[in-house]
Amino acid sequence: MKKVICMLCTVAVTAAVQAKPMDNAKLSIHKNNIKVWTYQNEQNPVIQYKAETSFDVPMENAVSLVLDVENAVKWVPYMGSVKVLSRDDKKGEFTLYMVLDFPFPLKDRDLVVQGKIRKDAQGNISIQNKGLKKGYPLHPNYVRLTEYEGDWTFQRLSNQKVKVSTSGYANPEGSIPLSFVNMFVQQQPYQMLQKMKVQLATYKPIALHDVLK
């Protein structure tokens, strides 16, 4: 493989403590074939999200785009840069270093993400990501995010249609107004899936790892 195949996590600023999936969920956005639910853990005032949509492309194309690091900055909101620290193609595991370009006057964030790719008996593909807290030096120019989890799932609806779901949370660290964080949580996954659709219209998929076959 000439291009690196790894996971782009959905880096949304969401809750630091994970709630049970869809507890107290509210459908916050429903337009352009995209749904975004938000929900809260009573122990944390910052909301979490789940978003889903469908694309008229083969499932492999959607998975390929999410695994194609070189295209990350084109469609993942606030993605400043991303690079591969390690990967194990046989196990479907990887480690990424990401820099998030937050709007002024907020300080940019960075994080180290450990990911795992799986395929179930029905052929659905999932990618699970978790922020690492130790083992990598802090950068003086960034605020390090360590409390992060994010998932993608891909379900084949037909040869030319795929359902894509993404969910997650993160502790944004530092001093960020709660109102900004909660607005960000609702808008970021919606914007990302919109941009993903645009990218898929002209995207040439890269070869997927054998674990996905």
Q: What's this entry about, in short?
A:
The protein is of the alpha+beta class and 213 residues long. The protein has three helices and ten strands, in the order E-E-E-H-H-E-E-E-E-E-E-E-H. Strand 6 (109-119) and strand 7 (125-131) form a beta hairpin.
What does this structure look like?
GO terms for molecular function: lipid binding. Pfam families: START (PF01852). This protein has 213 residues and is an alpha+beta fold. It has one domain: 2-Layer Sandwich (Alpha-D-Glucose-1,6-Bisphosphate, Chain A, domain 4). It contains three helices and ten strands, in the order βββααβββββββα. Strands 1, 2, 3, 4, 5, 6, 7, 8, 9 and 10 form a ten-stranded mixed sheet that branches. The two termini are 15 Å apart.
Q: What are the defining features of this structure?
A:
START_lipid-bd_dom, signal, Alpha-D-Glucose-1,6-Bisphosphate, Chain A, domain 4, 10-stranded mixed beta sheet, 3 helices, alpha+beta
CATH superfamily: START domain
Distance between the termini: 15 Å
Structural class: alpha+beta
Mean pLDDT: 82
What is the count of structural domains?
1
SSE map:
Layout: E1 26-31, E2 34-39, E3 48-55, H1 59-67, H2 72-75, E4 79-88, E5 93-100, E6 109-119, E7 125-131, E8 143-145, E9 148-158, E10 161-170, H3 178-202
